[in-house]
């Protein structure tokens, strides 16, 4: 069984071998997965600010840098470097994280990054992919390696049982009349189980790409239902995409229910990812409860 | 350099002598006049030398030199910092021809310079990277990440110029050059107002990253 991380490593190593534009910049984490003898593979030691700065410089000279680390050290620690060294310099790069919101909760808060997508959302021009299956990683990454834009790919240990085609906006995996549930990345399987358990007559959209946000796809799905009620299920900070749902539906009265990693408190608990899912009501029981209360009547 | 005061005054108004106090003016002039292999015609050429102004605060000297060397139209100096001027109090590379980076927030230029120098090496470019930082700017920890990385990775086509006007709040006991030397950089110290000294230092051969500390009078 291939993990998302393994699919990422394989795709990038193929890219390094085939495309002289591809470079990789790491800060120790995963560096042994890439051919260090290749001059386009640069490890800077445990120095995340310089990791992003070096990537910027490589991009300024025409290379296509892939920047990789554990999510909090890729996104949160060098956030200003992402804003200035990549965005403000007007260069492109492919940022790929592992760890997600709490893939390994025994490591505690320092290794959790539920705010990563919200942080990228503060910056213009970023494409954000949240694949839900390892087989979705290669096509998303292969496209990203060819382009010149700014891309964030959020990998997780948590995945759905099957992959969906990616790169074409939201995918309707189920149709109903009572409303729409938008499931992002690894949340899809749980959303489908929750909807089934509640016998909810709803459309379920699947998103492996959340930025750009497929407003047209969401609007079409809403138009085909009897109620403009949209529940968004994201594996990171709750409400991260709410503003885009509001913007999409600004011409019609609508309701939104945002679910995701809760914002109100820092959980000082270890345990398993499943424990944390339950604490954030992101397990099947919690999602079922949200579906039942939101789509009532 | 005789036109620099006039160009400077187009931004600063009547203060006739303000240009002379700019800590970077002499280094910038020597760089663009005698050291850098870059012209307006080669500003996008892969083999050009790249100059990264990391200390983007107080960019009048930089704009004056870019205007004098023909990278930017000197008429743009007159209404700098206005709404649709390409010239702000911090340079934006998207708006200023010849500006290799946008800067303003301290501690970004040196890490980026390590990247451009590595990129030049990967691209088999003849070009070198020069980056200018301030001694106060060196407070930012990102510089010290980059100082270590540049030497460990043997980035020999990189020169960092530190303008030392003793503006760092807590100083650098033992001197700035030592911070680079201990990491394996070649170093030199020059009088940052002496053009021949600056030129000699910036022209010296080096087979590892090179730091030139240009000392100028203390700023208050």
UniProtKB/TrEMBL annotation, chain A:
Stretches of the chain forming a coiled coil according to its record: none
InterPro entries with a match to the protein in the record: PDH/Transketolase, THDP-binding, Transketo_C/PFOR_II, Transketolase-like_Pyr-bd, Transketolase_C
Domain of life: Bacteria
Molecular functions per Gene Ontology: magnesium ion binding
Residue ranges annotated for the Transketolase-like pyrimidine-binding domain, each copy included: 2-163
Name this polypeptide is given: Transketolase
Organism of this sequence: Lentzea xinjiangensis
TrEMBL record, chain B:
Pfam annotation, one family: Transketolase_N
Family per similarity comment: Belongs to the transketolase family.
Segments forming domain Transketolase N-terminal: 17-204
GO molecular function: magnesium ion binding
SUPFAM superfamilies per UniProt: Thiamin diphosphate-binding fold (THDP-binding) (SSF52518)
Name of this chain's protein: Transketolase
Coiled-coil annotated residue ranges, if any: none
Cofactor: thiamine diphosphate
Keywords: Thiamine pyrophosphate
């Amino acid at each position: 069984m291939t993990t998302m991380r393994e699919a990422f490593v394989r795709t990038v190593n193929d890219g390094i071998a085939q495309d002289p534009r591809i470079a990789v910049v790491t800060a120790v984490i995963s560096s042994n997965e890439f051919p260090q003898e290749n001059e386009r593979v640069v490890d800077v030691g445990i120095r995340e600010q310089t990791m992003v700065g070096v990537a910027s410089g490589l991009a300024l000279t025409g290379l296509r840098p892939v920047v990789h680390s554990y999510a909090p050290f890729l996104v949160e620690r060098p956030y200003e470097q992402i804003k200035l060294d990549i965005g403000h310099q007007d260069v492109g790069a492919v940022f790929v994280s592992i760890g997600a919101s709490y893939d390994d909760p025994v490591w505690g808060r320092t290794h959790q990054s539920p705010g990563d997508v919200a942080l990228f959302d503060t910056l213009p021009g970023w494409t954000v992919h949240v694949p839900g299956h390892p087989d979705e990683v290669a096509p998303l990454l292969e496209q990203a390696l060819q382009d010149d834009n700014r891309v964030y790919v959020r990998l997780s240990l948590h995945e759905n049982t099957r992959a969906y085609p990616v790169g074409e906006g939201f995918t309707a995996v189920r149709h109903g009349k009572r409303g729409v549930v938008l499931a992002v990345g690894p949340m899809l399987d749980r959303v489908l189980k929750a909807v089934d358990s509640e016998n909810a007559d709803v459309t379920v959209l699947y998103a492996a790409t959340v930025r750009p946000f497929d407003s047209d796809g969401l609007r079409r799905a809403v138009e085909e239902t009897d109620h403009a009620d949209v529940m968004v299920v994201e594996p990171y900070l709750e409400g991260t995409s709410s503003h885009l749902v509001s913007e999409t539906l600004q011409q019609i009265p609508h309701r939104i229910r945002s679910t995701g990693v809760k914002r109100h408190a820092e959980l000082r608990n270890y345990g398993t990812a499943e424990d944390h899912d339950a604490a954030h009501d992101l397990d099947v029981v919690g999602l079922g409860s949200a579906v039942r209360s939101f789509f009532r009547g | 350099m005789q036109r620099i005061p006039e160009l400077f005054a187009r931004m600063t108004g009547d203060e006739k002598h303000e240009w002379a106090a700019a800590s970077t003016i002499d280094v910038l002039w020597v760089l663009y006049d005698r050291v850098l292999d870059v012209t307006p015609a080669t500003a996008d050429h892969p083999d050009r030398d790249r100059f990264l102004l990391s200390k983007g605060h107080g960019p009048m000297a930089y704009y004056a030199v870019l205007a004098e060397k023909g990278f930017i139209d000197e008429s743009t100096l007159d209404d700098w910092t206005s709404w649709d001027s390409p010239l702000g109090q911090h340079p934006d590379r998207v708006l200023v021809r010849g500006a290799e980076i946008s800067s303003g927030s301290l501690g970004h230029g040196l890490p980026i310079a390590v990247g451009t120098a590595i990129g030049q090496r990967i691209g088999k470019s003849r070009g070198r990277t020069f980056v200018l930082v301030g001694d106060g700017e060196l407070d930012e920890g990102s510089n010290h990440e980059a100082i270590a990385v540049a030497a460990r990775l043997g980035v020999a086509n990189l020169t960092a110029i530190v303008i030392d006007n003793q503006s760092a709040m807590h100083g650098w006991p033992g001197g700035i050059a030592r911070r680079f030397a201990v990491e394996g950089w070649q170093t030199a110290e020059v009088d940052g107002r002496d053009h021949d000294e600056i030129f000699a230092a910036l022209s010296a051969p080096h087979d590892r990253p090179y730091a030139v500390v240009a000392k100028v009078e203390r700023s208050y």
